[in-house]
């Protein structure tokens, strides 16, 4: 049984006793002069054109991010959805000061060949205590992109192993793969969905479909893209239209799986398309996808890099789907701090060194993931995410009713929320001007504003956000 809501909020607040009651702004613009000066200096060595501002990590606390100009902003972007339990979390800082953490950081092991004595225990604590239901293996990696890349490799090897059976590699396979030719380098593809984002490395970028700027000038693999359902929001109020849209997408997906010239080894899909516009579908659509993949012998990879670790009110967003059988692989990163993918034994390569790299993750990030997981349980943070998410969503829908010419389509699960601002200039102005009022947010897709707060986000924070969003809109942006 979880803590009562009041006790829950009090316990979380006690973690960050120095967190301010509200944002504190010292400059009229963000970035301010100090940030701009630092950005100019960094820009002599590294491109700074995407930078919002320069942060002061020492002064950031809890749900608030400090910048170089002394501004302290409520952070609803959280390092692109990757901070789980607050800046300068005292329990994580204690972990970082421990001998175990320091030694692992300064003597970083190549985990695939020299795992430390506590690695089995660490795997259990960091990953298996919160594993997706039905999956009992984990492959650790360095980031979300390489988690997806190595999951793709596993899919290709699995499909070839099914064809090969108990036979060993042939001489022709071994020779031809060194020339990037068949049969050793077989023709396979990964199917993704329109507006999807799965990373920026070469294979993951071939599966990414969110924005041209990510892909332009980069050679790409001949991989199919299926339509993502063009649903209407709120989902529950548009059931008939959404069923038709989902049925159309499923039919097109089946057609592509059967006819694409490069056989599809696996599909990959996000529970909510985090970079492509916070696009959602109903559980029925994902259930249909799972049934389709099983019927056609195609693997299903669920990309939970952005949605995993509690952001949607469940540990894994695909748990909302109530699948009869689990996905074949679930990739993760961001809020987990560590990265990799969950699977079952069938996804292990037939020989060592096939799905492999030097680091295979990092013990200190696994220690951090275990400590975050412990806090999720201790403070009942999934309950908090659901309560505050519902509260925030209702607040957004109220603002929609008051300002229908500006914003629409408030949606999401837990605190993984978004709303649309169809006018590009208005969207840019909202994000810029609410930052001047002390709230840091980001965008997704071509018209969405996304909320990616930490799991410690509370109703008092939601009130600040909703009030300052209202002020921003009513001030004429």
UniProtKB/TrEMBL annotation:
Organism listed in the record: Caulochytrium protostelioides
Cofactors, names only: pyridoxal 5'-phosphate
The lineage, from the top, is: Eukaryota, Fungi, Fungi incertae sedis, Chytridiomycota, Chytridiomycota incertae sedis
Q: What EC number(s) are associated with this protein in UniProt?
A: 2.6.1.19
Q: Which UniProt keywords apply?
A: Aminotransferase, Pyridoxal phosphate, Transferase
Pfam families linked to this entry = Aminotran_3
What's this protein's family per the entry?
A: Belongs to the class-III pyridoxal-phosphate-dependent aminotransferase family.
Gene3D superfamilies with a match to the protein in the record? Aspartate Aminotransferase, domain 1, Type I PLP-dependent aspartate aminotransferase-like (Major domain)
Q: Catalysed reaction per UniProt? A: 4-aminobutanoate + 2-oxoglutarate = succinate semialdehyde + L-glutamate
Cellular component annotations (GO), alphabetically ordered: mitochondrion
Instruction: Tell me a GO biological process for this protein.
Output: gamma-aminobutyric acid catabolic process
Q: Name one GO molecular function term.
A: 4-aminobutyrate:2-oxoglutarate transaminase activity
Q: Does the keyword Transferase apply?
A: yes
Under CDD domains, the record lists: OAT_like
Give the protein's recorded name: 4-aminobutyrate aminotransferase
The residue range of the signal peptide is none
